[in-house]
Write a structure and sequence with these properties.
about 325 residues, about 30% strand, globular
């Protein structure tokens, strides 16, 4: 049975060199995995240079499938390939080509040669399904790549920043961190576990924060907080929701306020629950707070940033609505 071929191109509003560098930076793989795919990255290897391997764990219902690919044929600014070493296909070679297209524009071409397992029977049974999955995956990848490159190019004149992030394992944080790193920014994440390179240990429940490690960061994005849909709102769960926001925000802001070189901006998560249930009323950031549990939580959450404001840090409060994603959150519920 011959190999099947899939090829797709997308025009990019940046040079081929810039598009290539985006793929080399940490976080590119995270940005390119579609949200509907139940895939976990076990190992990134050493980027996209020859010999580097990526290990993915793909869950399909009760089944776990390990996919190992190795990079080869690296030509800086022009192309690289990844070849399946272990995985669901009998043959898989993915070529990434970057083609200059006039002044500061380029074309990204993804060319895949693949062969399903099971020979002619496997292709007859699953061939159209596999091709549709591949087409959907690359449509998503190209939309994301093009949009991210446009977003980064708008602000490239401002230079690269050093950003600290809490809640990096949450639904938003898992996308924000790779978005920043693929833009060339340095990211430090605050974690409760072992503080590896690029991590700062903190435990708000124990009033613990190594704030000195955040001196000279340009900005902080604070996303940490108990998932309000994680469990029924018992009295103890409501207290956890409140403490995870109000107390952690206060610990963070008091630590930032004491730094010799505090960040210029703190972007702190909040919620539209601030306004309460106001029926059909049109609300904006100047509207008053409402009533109910979530309104009380968000008022305390936002008030906990006072130490940062008093220290001259610009505080931006993000009043999120419900975030919907196949990756998790409220959508499945």
């Amino acid at each position: 049975m011959n190999n099947r071929v899939f090829s797709r191109k997308v025009s990019l509003a940046v040079s081929a060199d810039e598009a290539f560098v985006w793929h080399e930076r940490p976080g590119a793989l995270e940005r390119l995995i579609p949200p509907w795919e139940n895939v976990r990255i076990l190992s990134h290897g050493e980027g996209i240079r020859d010999g580097s391997r990526v290990v993915l764990l793909n869950r399909q219902g009760p089944l776990k499938l390990c996919w190992v690919s190795e990079h080869c044929d690296y030509e800086k600014g022009r192309m690289f390939r990844d070849v399946q070493i272990q995985g669901p296909f009998r043959h898989w070679v993915h070529t990434h080509r970057f083609i200059a297209d006039g002044n500061e524009k380029s074309v990204l071409e993804d060319h895949v040669e693949y062969r399903p397992r099971g020979g002619m029977f496997g292709h007859a049974v699953a061939g159209s399904f596999i091709r549709a999955k591949i087409a959907g995956m690359f449509a998503y990848r190209h939309r994301t790549t093009a949009a991210d490159l446009i977003a980064h190019s708008k602000y490239c004149h401002k230079g690269h920043m050093h950003v600290a992030v809490t809640g990096s394992h949450g639904l938003i944080g898992r996308q924000l961190v790779p978005f920043l790193t693929t833009g060339g920014h340095e990211v430090t994440v605050l974690v409760r576990g072992e503080a590896l390179q690029g991590h700062v240990f903190w435990d708000p429940s124990a009033d613990t924060l190594d704030a000195s490690a955040l001196d000279d960061v340009h900005g902080v994005v604070h996303l940490a907080g108990e998932n309000i849909a994680a469990a029924r709102w018992s009295a103890s769960q409501k207290q956890r929701i409140l403490d995870s926001r109000e107390h952690s925000t206060r610990i963070l802001c008091e630590g930032l306020a004491q730094l010799p070189s505090p960040p210029k901006v703190l972007v702190s998560a909040s919620a539209t629950g601030f306004y309460g249930d106001r029926g059909e009323a049109i609300l904006d950031e100047d509207s008053s707070s409402g009533e109910g549990f979530l309104s009380r939580v968000t008022r305390g959450w936002e008030a906990a940033t006072q130490a940062a404001t008093a220290a001259g840090i610009r505080v931006v409060r993000l009043r999120f609505g419900v975030v919907l994603s196949p990756r998790g959150g409220a959508l499945a519920k």
